[in-house]
Protein backbone atom coordinates (compact mmCIF):
# COMPACT_ATOMS: atom_id res chain seq x y z
CA UNK A 1 0.00 0.00 0.00
CA UNK A 2 1.10 3.56 -0.72
CA UNK A 3 1.07 6.20 2.01
CA UNK A 4 1.99 9.86 2.05
CA UNK A 5 5.17 10.63 3.92
CA UNK A 6 3.31 13.56 5.44
CA UNK A 7 0.94 11.09 7.10
CA UNK A 8 3.89 9.38 8.84
CA UNK A 9 4.70 12.55 10.77
CA UNK A 10 3.74 12.00 14.38
CA UNK A 11 3.86 8.18 14.23
CA UNK A 12 5.20 6.75 17.49
CA UNK A 13 8.28 4.53 17.54
CA UNK A 14 8.10 1.80 20.17
CA UNK A 15 11.32 0.15 21.35
CA UNK A 16 11.37 -3.24 23.07
CA UNK A 17 11.28 -1.45 26.44
CA UNK A 18 9.24 1.68 25.85
CA UNK A 19 8.44 4.62 23.59
CA UNK A 20 11.35 6.28 21.77
CA UNK A 21 9.54 9.26 20.28
CA UNK A 22 7.72 10.29 17.12
CA UNK A 23 8.63 10.63 13.43
CA UNK A 24 9.36 14.13 12.18
CA UNK A 25 11.01 13.45 8.82
CA UNK A 26 12.27 10.76 6.45
CA UNK A 27 15.73 10.48 4.87
CA UNK A 28 15.87 8.96 1.37
CA UNK A 29 18.91 8.21 -0.74
CA UNK A 30 19.16 10.41 -3.81
CA UNK A 31 20.12 7.53 -6.10
CA UNK A 32 17.27 5.06 -5.61
CA UNK A 33 14.70 7.29 -3.86
CA UNK A 34 14.34 4.69 -1.15
CA UNK A 35 13.67 5.84 2.42
CA UNK A 36 16.64 4.71 4.50
CA UNK A 37 15.99 6.32 7.88
CA UNK A 38 13.20 7.79 9.95
CA UNK A 39 14.09 10.97 11.81
CA UNK A 40 12.67 10.54 15.30
CA UNK A 41 12.26 13.28 17.91
CA UNK A 42 12.91 11.59 21.25
CA UNK A 43 11.01 14.16 23.29
CA UNK A 44 11.63 14.83 26.96
CA UNK A 45 13.33 11.53 27.88
CA UNK A 46 16.36 12.41 25.69
CA UNK A 47 16.09 16.22 25.67
CA UNK A 48 14.32 16.20 22.27
CA UNK A 49 17.40 14.83 20.55
CA UNK A 50 16.70 13.70 17.00
CA UNK A 51 17.90 10.20 16.10
CA UNK A 52 17.88 8.09 12.95
CA UNK A 53 16.01 4.77 12.96
CA UNK A 54 16.42 2.38 10.01
CA UNK A 55 13.41 0.51 8.57
CA UNK A 56 15.62 -2.56 9.01
CA UNK A 57 14.74 -2.44 12.71
CA UNK A 58 10.95 -2.32 12.22
CA UNK A 59 9.40 -5.62 13.23
CA UNK A 60 5.74 -4.64 13.28
CA UNK A 61 3.69 -1.75 11.91
CA UNK A 62 0.34 -0.81 13.41
CA UNK A 63 -0.88 1.63 10.79
CA UNK A 64 -4.28 2.08 12.41
CA UNK A 65 -2.79 3.26 15.71
CA UNK A 66 0.10 5.07 14.02
CA UNK A 67 2.67 2.96 15.82
CA UNK A 68 5.86 1.30 14.54
CA UNK A 69 7.51 -1.29 16.80
CA UNK A 70 11.28 -1.68 16.45
CA UNK A 71 13.69 -4.38 17.61
CA UNK A 72 16.04 -2.05 19.52
CA UNK A 73 16.15 -0.78 23.10
CA UNK A 74 15.90 2.75 24.46
CA UNK A 75 19.43 2.40 25.78
CA UNK A 76 20.71 1.59 22.29
CA UNK A 77 19.03 4.71 20.97
CA UNK A 78 20.44 6.81 23.81
CA UNK A 79 24.01 5.70 23.03
CA UNK A 80 23.70 5.80 19.23
CA UNK A 81 25.99 8.04 17.15
CA UNK A 82 24.99 11.69 17.38
CA UNK A 83 24.28 12.75 13.78
CA UNK A 84 23.21 16.22 12.67
CA UNK A 85 19.82 15.62 11.04
CA UNK A 86 19.82 19.15 9.60
CA UNK A 87 22.40 18.18 6.97
CA UNK A 88 22.59 15.55 4.18
CA UNK A 89 23.90 12.24 5.50
CA UNK A 90 26.97 10.80 3.80
CA UNK A 91 27.87 7.14 3.38
CA UNK A 92 30.66 7.28 5.96
CA UNK A 93 28.15 8.36 8.62
CA UNK A 94 25.85 5.54 7.55
CA UNK A 95 28.61 3.00 8.06
CA UNK A 96 29.11 4.32 11.59
CA UNK A 97 25.40 4.08 12.35
CA UNK A 98 24.83 0.64 10.82
CA UNK A 99 27.90 -0.80 12.53
CA UNK A 100 26.69 0.53 15.85
CA UNK A 101 23.39 -1.38 15.52
CA UNK A 102 25.08 -4.42 13.99
CA UNK A 103 23.16 -4.15 10.70
CA UNK A 104 24.53 -5.23 7.32
CA UNK A 105 25.07 -2.58 4.65
CA UNK A 106 22.05 -2.37 2.36
CA UNK A 107 24.04 -1.26 -0.70
CA UNK A 108 25.93 -3.47 -3.15
CA UNK A 109 23.20 -6.00 -3.94
CA UNK A 110 20.79 -6.32 -6.83
CA UNK A 111 17.73 -5.35 -4.81
CA UNK A 112 16.64 -2.23 -3.03
CA UNK A 113 17.78 -3.73 0.30
CA UNK A 114 20.84 -5.84 -0.34
CA UNK A 115 19.66 -8.54 -2.70
CA UNK A 116 16.08 -8.38 -1.50
CA UNK A 117 12.94 -6.27 -1.54
CA UNK A 118 12.26 -5.67 2.11
CA UNK A 119 14.41 -4.06 4.84
CA UNK A 120 13.44 -6.41 7.67
CA UNK A 121 14.74 -9.41 5.71
CA UNK A 122 18.28 -8.10 6.13
CA UNK A 123 18.22 -9.14 9.78
CA UNK A 124 17.84 -12.82 8.91
CA UNK A 125 19.80 -12.95 5.64
CA UNK A 126 22.76 -10.76 4.86
CA UNK A 127 22.36 -11.58 1.15
CA UNK A 128 26.09 -11.89 0.59
CA UNK A 129 26.82 -8.35 1.77
CA UNK A 130 29.41 -7.36 4.34
CA UNK A 131 28.16 -7.58 7.88
CA UNK A 132 29.59 -5.40 10.64
CA UNK A 133 29.20 -8.33 13.04
CA UNK A 134 31.39 -10.63 10.94
CA UNK A 135 33.83 -12.48 13.19
CA UNK A 136 36.43 -13.02 10.48
CA UNK A 137 39.81 -11.28 10.36
CA UNK A 138 39.14 -7.56 10.72
CA UNK A 139 41.89 -6.40 8.35
CA UNK A 140 40.34 -7.77 5.12
CA UNK A 141 36.94 -6.56 6.31
CA UNK A 142 38.19 -2.98 6.84
CA UNK A 143 39.92 -3.05 3.45
CA UNK A 144 36.79 -4.24 1.70
CA UNK A 145 34.67 -1.66 3.50
CA UNK A 146 37.01 1.12 2.38
CA UNK A 147 36.79 -0.09 -1.20
CA UNK A 148 33.00 -0.07 -0.99
CA UNK A 149 32.66 3.53 0.06
CA UNK A 150 35.71 5.35 -1.33
CA UNK A 151 33.99 6.51 -4.53
CA UNK A 152 30.48 6.62 -3.13
CA UNK A 153 28.96 10.10 -3.24
CA UNK A 154 25.38 9.05 -2.55
CA UNK A 155 23.79 11.32 0.03
CA UNK A 156 20.70 10.83 2.11
CA UNK A 157 18.37 13.80 1.95
CA UNK A 158 15.43 15.06 3.93
CA UNK A 159 11.95 14.75 2.43
CA UNK A 160 10.98 17.76 4.50
CA UNK A 161 13.76 19.86 2.99
CA UNK A 162 13.06 19.04 -0.64
CA UNK A 163 9.31 19.56 -0.31
CA UNK A 164 8.81 22.78 -2.22
CA UNK A 165 11.51 22.08 -4.83
CA UNK A 166 10.54 23.39 -8.27
CA UNK A 167 9.95 20.85 -11.05
CA UNK A 168 10.65 21.83 -14.66
CA UNK A 169 9.53 20.15 -17.89
CA UNK A 170 11.40 20.36 -21.18
CA UNK A 171 9.44 23.50 -22.09
CA UNK A 172 8.99 25.30 -18.81
CA UNK A 173 8.04 25.20 -15.15
CA UNK A 174 5.49 22.61 -13.97
CA UNK A 175 5.10 23.36 -10.29
CA UNK A 176 6.59 22.28 -6.98
CA UNK A 177 6.87 19.13 -4.88
CA UNK A 178 4.07 19.06 -2.36
CA UNK A 179 4.63 15.60 -0.93
CA UNK A 180 5.51 11.97 -1.58
CA UNK A 181 3.85 8.57 -1.75
CA UNK A 182 5.88 5.76 -0.21
CA UNK A 183 5.48 1.98 -0.37
CA UNK A 184 4.88 0.80 3.20
CA UNK A 185 6.55 -2.58 2.56
CA UNK A 186 9.70 -1.69 0.62
CA UNK A 187 9.98 1.94 1.83
CA UNK A 188 10.55 3.11 -1.73
CA UNK A 189 9.23 6.55 -2.69
CA UNK A 190 7.03 5.72 -5.67
CA UNK A 191 5.66 9.16 -6.52
CA UNK A 192 6.21 12.84 -6.01
CA UNK A 193 2.99 14.78 -5.49
CA UNK A 194 3.49 17.80 -7.73
CA UNK A 195 1.33 20.88 -7.29
CA UNK A 196 0.87 22.86 -10.51
CA UNK A 197 -1.05 25.74 -8.92
CA UNK A 198 1.29 28.39 -10.32
CA UNK A 199 0.12 27.64 -13.87
CA UNK A 200 -2.73 25.09 -13.90
CA UNK A 201 -5.53 25.76 -11.43
CA UNK A 202 -4.13 23.90 -8.45
CA UNK A 203 -3.91 20.64 -10.36
CA UNK A 204 -2.01 17.90 -8.49
CA UNK A 205 -0.32 15.07 -10.37
CA UNK A 206 1.81 12.06 -9.46
CA UNK A 207 5.23 11.72 -11.07
CA UNK A 208 7.71 8.91 -10.26
CA UNK A 209 10.89 10.53 -8.89
CA UNK A 210 13.20 8.35 -10.99
CA UNK A 211 11.84 10.12 -14.09
CA UNK A 212 13.84 13.16 -13.01
CA UNK A 213 16.83 13.50 -15.32
CA UNK A 214 18.72 15.93 -13.13
CA UNK A 215 18.38 17.54 -9.71
CA UNK A 216 20.10 20.75 -8.72
CA UNK A 217 20.23 20.49 -4.94
CA UNK A 218 21.74 23.97 -4.66
CA UNK A 219 19.03 25.56 -6.83
CA UNK A 220 16.24 23.41 -5.35
CA UNK A 221 14.85 22.20 -8.66
CA UNK A 222 14.46 19.05 -10.73
CA UNK A 223 14.35 18.60 -14.49
CA UNK A 224 11.97 16.14 -16.18
CA UNK A 225 12.01 14.77 -19.71
CA UNK A 226 8.29 15.53 -20.06
CA UNK A 227 6.36 18.35 -21.67
CA UNK A 228 4.06 20.70 -19.80
CA UNK A 229 1.16 19.50 -21.95
CA UNK A 230 1.79 15.87 -20.95
CA UNK A 231 1.63 16.89 -17.30
CA UNK A 232 -1.42 19.07 -17.87
CA UNK A 233 -3.28 16.11 -19.44
CA UNK A 234 -2.16 13.65 -16.75
CA UNK A 235 -4.67 12.00 -14.37
CA UNK A 236 -5.29 14.37 -11.45
CA UNK A 237 -4.48 13.30 -7.92
CA UNK A 238 -6.17 14.00 -4.62
CA UNK A 239 -5.52 12.62 -1.15
CA UNK A 240 -8.82 10.72 -1.08
CA UNK A 241 -7.90 8.57 -4.07
CA UNK A 242 -7.34 4.83 -3.68
CA UNK A 243 -3.89 4.26 -5.17
CA UNK A 244 -4.14 0.67 -6.34
CA UNK A 245 -2.47 -0.98 -9.34
CA UNK A 246 -5.30 0.15 -11.63
CA UNK A 247 -4.77 3.79 -10.72
CA UNK A 248 -1.01 3.41 -11.13
CA UNK A 249 -1.44 1.76 -14.54
CA UNK A 250 -3.51 4.73 -15.64
CA UNK A 251 -0.63 7.08 -14.86
CA UNK A 252 2.01 5.00 -16.62
CA UNK A 253 -0.19 4.40 -19.66
CA UNK A 254 -0.79 8.13 -20.00
CA UNK A 255 2.93 8.83 -20.20
CA UNK A 256 3.70 5.72 -22.26
CA UNK A 257 6.26 4.53 -19.74
CA UNK A 258 6.87 0.96 -18.47
CA UNK A 259 5.46 0.27 -15.00
CA UNK A 260 8.06 -0.15 -12.27
CA UNK A 261 6.85 -3.60 -11.20
CA UNK A 262 7.51 -5.01 -14.69
CA UNK A 263 10.54 -3.00 -15.80
CA UNK A 264 13.72 -5.03 -15.29
CA UNK A 265 15.86 -1.89 -15.47
CA UNK A 266 14.23 -0.41 -12.38
CA UNK A 267 15.06 -1.75 -8.92
CA UNK A 268 11.88 -3.17 -7.34
Explain what you see:
The chain is of the alpha+beta class. The chain has 2 domains: 2-157, SH3 type barrels; 163-255, PRC-barrel domain (SH3 type barrels, Roll), CATH 2.30.30. It has 7 helices and 15 strands. It has helices at residues 5-8, 74-78, 91-101, 138-149, 159-162, 228-232, 245-255; strands at residues 2-4, 12-15, 18-29, 35-41, 50-53, 58-62, 67-70, 89-90, 155-158, 166-169, 172-183, 189-195, 204-207, 212-216, 221-224. Strands 2, 3, 4, 5, 6, 7, 8 and 9 form an 8-stranded mixed beta sheet that branches. A hairpin with a 2-residue loop joins strand 2 and strand 3 (18-29). The protein is globular. The two termini are 14 Å apart. Residues 126-144 have low confidence and may be disordered.
Work out the oligomeric state of the chains in this entry: single chain
CATH class of the largest domain: Mainly Beta
- Spans of at least 5 consecutive residues whose pLDDT stays below 50 are 126-144
Provide the CATH architecture of the largest domain.
Answer: Roll
Give the radius of gyration: 19 Å
- The percent range for helix content is 10-25%
